[in-house]
Design a protein that fits this description.
alpha/beta; 5-stranded parallel sheet; 10% strand; globular
Length: 233
């Protein structure tokens, strides 16, 4: 083998290694380190047919769902910062276990990234159809996107788009009706008359305080545990 041919093969091999490395790097940094930390954890904590899964982004991630419902089968599969594509990329870790129920809330971070309401609804439709195809026994709940607010001066990519949330929710309700799954309107409970996040339930205009999670819990108690919340006197 002459020297020129040898160097040509070596250059090609190095180029292939570089391409492979770049591809792997792109795969492992597509969503950020926290996404992969949580996603890998969920792979080691498989779901079962008895499980009730809360699936979504940071708003879901922040809830202590098993404690809120007093039900060990209620499990948190939220990842802070997640978007529709992130749900699709990790959905098999949930559907492989054929859980009893999935409560999905996703879309607010897609909105912050300037995805249109139509594109968000389309992606949610893909998620719902995949759950139905991969785990037909699972009952699917599409929860509305919660209101956001620009009055806290935080989350500049979310808060100013508060008027967009009701548009997304109208489309999500249509997706749920079209796919024959249950739509849950949380928005109207958490929103002010103007349509922004009620400060009684949030201290940053996007995420919930304990009071907010308790309201959310009460709204879903019958669907999750088969019981109605106790009436306040």
């Amino acid at each position: 083998m002459n020297t020129r041919h040898h160097w040509g093969l070596l250059t090609l091999a190095l180029a292939l290694v570089f391409v492979a490395t770049q591809s792997l790097s792109a795969q492992t940094t597509k969503y950020g380190t926290y996404y992969y930390q949580r996603a890998h954890l969920f792979e080691t904590l498989p779901t079962s047919p008895d499980d009730i899964i809360f699936l979504g982004n940071s708003i879901t991630d922040g809830g202590e769902w098993g404690e809120l419902f007093g039900n060990i089968n209620v499990k948190n599969r939220g990842i802070s910062g997640d978007i529709c594509d992130g749900i699709l990329d990790r959905l098999s870790t949930i559907t492989n276990g054929h859980p009893a129920k999935v409560f999905l809330m996703i879309g607010v971070n897609d909105m912050a990234r300037d995805f249109t309401p139509d594109s968000i609804a389309y992606k949610v439709g893909l998620i719902v159809r995949r759950i139905k195809a991969e785990s037909p026994e699972t009952k699917v709940y599409v929860q509305s996107v919660l209101p956001v607010s620009d009055e806290f001066g935080l989350f500049s990519n979310h808060g100013p788009k508060w008027r967009t949330v009701p548009v997304i929710n109208t489309l999500l309700q249509q997706v749920a009706e079209r796919e024959g799954v249950t739509y849950i309107d949380l928005f109207s409970v958490f929103a002010t008359e103007e349509g922004k996040m009620n400060a009684a339930y949030s201290n940053d205009g996007l995420h919930l305080t304990g009071a907010g999670y308790k309201v959310w819990r009460d709204l879903l108690l019958e669907e999750v545990n088969g019981e109605k919340p106790e009436e306040k006197h």
